[in-house]
Specification:
This protein is α+β, with helices and mostly antiparallel strands and 94 residues long. 48% of the residues lie in helices and 18% in strands. The N and C termini lie far apart (43 Å).
Length: 94
Amino acid sequence: MFMEQALCDAVDTMQDALWETQIREYPKSVRMSIEEVYAWCNEAKTGTTLHNRYIQISMALQYPVVVFYRIEGTKFRGFRYGVDGSEYMSLYGD
């Protein structure tokens, strides 16, 4: 049980650091839960767009910790995987 909690704490700390970087680089960012990400995928108007969105979010699986975001007032979505300014992946909606 202790190891499980320690791992959860470490992930939370890493996500906090990623989010701090995201807000610094893109202040209009809004953090998205995984449920919100799936809802965005499912809002696709065509099967091709639905497929493309799920393929894009699956790229996050190659990183141990990510945070998903949207940019307020835009169609931009993405995820941050590192604390350097350029360590993020844009997701394309259409």
